[in-house]
Design goal:
- The protein is mainly α.
- It is 77% helix and 0% strand.
- It has helices spanning 2-17, 22-36, 42-53, 59-102, 109-134, 138-152, 157-176, 186-193, 213-226, 231-245, 251-263, 271-303, 314-342, 346-362, 366-382.
């Protein structure tokens, strides 16, 4: 029970304070569970991060679910996921209620102005620590650089991850070819072949044009089962069916829904909560939220027990090494883009530098820095 309470309190707090999207969420979790609480090593954390990138769904939420499972077993799996999702759901629900009542979104401009620079510092600290563990050889450094370049040229994130894993398998296989006739491939094949082929739950179940709670639920189960990538990929999925095919939402409503998912703390996928409330009130919000996150629990429950065993197979180990450095490379590229948007003047640059100093030199808890950044942003807005 003590472990479950610890899991619940940690992920509730992160759910209320984890601004900045998946890269920031990963950084905050690494700070809490590796550096501060020592629930697992950096290498174990990296393996879980790599595993989440190979399955569809919200990566940071799936990482939270993995961490809960490691700390509290199957009950911890449920507790961590629910506690990380619930705060974002409630905040998004409040924003949706205000939107329906007054026809406009609550302003978060001041808060985000101060929080974003702090998040940049938090992510850079995590990248530094995780990178030292992940980039163990010159070959892995080359793979990481190639991943950044490939993604910068427009290659999809999933293809970058798979390519990095495949390159490491080829490299390791070439080195071992002279010494061994064969290598165990079972676990590696299951890792790459299994999770990479989404189950496509309820793939054709949302054919009815009239709105219904059942149709809404099945639609979001499908989205949660097959979606890889960022919130912008989510936007494309939602627009195709909800706006173009069925006419359940207007273009402006969809953009507002995605905006709320981006600016509230916690998982971006709580965009579904906003859409559900606009379409069907509180029942619609609950149905949509459960639908989009349910596959994440399933995929983690299926793949999670395999992760500690993967290192026993050289194939699976090579895949994880490649995926881990590619994941960090993608995280670094996202951080660069976030930094360009967040560091807009002397105040924001100063916030980022002070936050980095306090994190690296004095190991201040990142939550206090986020709250301090929000306070600075609100003060600036009132000047």
């Amino acid at each position: 029970m003590a472990a479950l309470k610890e899991v619940a309190l940690l992920f509730l707090r992160l759910g209320f304070t984890a601004f900045g999207g998946p890269a920031a969420h990963v950084a905050l979790m690494e700070d809490e569970v590796v550096r501060r609480r020592r629930w697992l090593s950096r290498d174990e954390f990296l393996d879980l991060l790599g595993a989440t990138n190979l399955i569809p769904g919200p990566n940071s939420t799936e990482l939270a679910i993995h961490l809960g499972h490691r700390r509290g077993g199957w009950a911890g799996l449920l507790v961590a996921g629910v506690c990380f999702i619930l705060p974002a759901m409630l905040l998004t629900l409040g924003a949706a209620w205000a939107y329906v009542r007054w026809g406009a979104l609550p302003s978060m401009e001041g808060v985000l102005y101060g929080v974003k620079p702090v998040i940049i510092a938090v992510v850079l600290q995590a990248l530094w620590g995780l990178g030292r563990s992940a980039v163990k050889t010159r070959v892995l450094a080359v793979v990481a650089l190639a991943a950044v370049l490939a993604n910068g040229l427009g290659l999809h994130e999933l293809l970058v991850l798979v390519g990095a894993g495949a390159l490491m398998v080829l490299w390791q296989g070439g080195r071992r070819a002279a010494a061994r006739d064969g290598a165990p491939k079972g676990l590696g094949a299951r890792l790459v072949g299994g999770p990479l082929v989404p189950l496509g739950l309820a793939a054709g179940a949302t054919s009815a044009v009239p709105f219904s709670l059942g149709g809404l639920f099945l639609f979001f189960v499908k989205v949660g089962s097959v979606l890889y990538g960022s919130g912008y990929v989510l936007l494309a999925f939602l627009r195709t069916d909800l706006v173009e095919r069925w006419g359940w939402l207007g273009e402006a409503q969809l953009l507002d829904a995605v905006a709320v998912g981006q600016v509230t703390p916690g998982p971006v996928f709580t965009t579904a909560t906003f859409i559900g409330y606009v379409l069907g009130g509180v029942p619609g919000a609950v149905v949509a939220t459960v639908g989009i996150f349910l596959p994440a629990f399933f995929f983690v429950a299926v793949s999670g027990p395999l992760v500690p065993r993967l290192r026993r197979s050289w194939v699976a180990g090579a895949v994880l090494d490649g995926v881990n450095v590619a994941s960090l490379a993608l995280m670094a590229r996202v951080t660069w883009e976030l930094g360009r948007a967040a560091l807009v003047d002397a105040v924001t640059v100063g916030l980022a530098l002070v936050s980095a100093l306090l994190l690296l030199r004095y190991r201040i808890n990142s939550v206090w820095l986020i709250l301090g950044g929000a306070a600075v942003g609100l003060l600036r807005l009132s000047w």
